Amino acid sequence: MGENPDKYDYSKAQVPGPLTAEIESKKTEKKKAQKALRKQREKEQKEEKRKQELEAEEKKRFASLTDREKRALAAEKRLAEQVAATGVSLSNVKRCWLCGESLLGKIPFQYLDYSFCTPRCVQAHRKANTLPGKT
Question: Where are the compositionally biased (Basic and acidic residues) regions (predicted)?
Answer without folding.
Answer: 1-10, 39-60
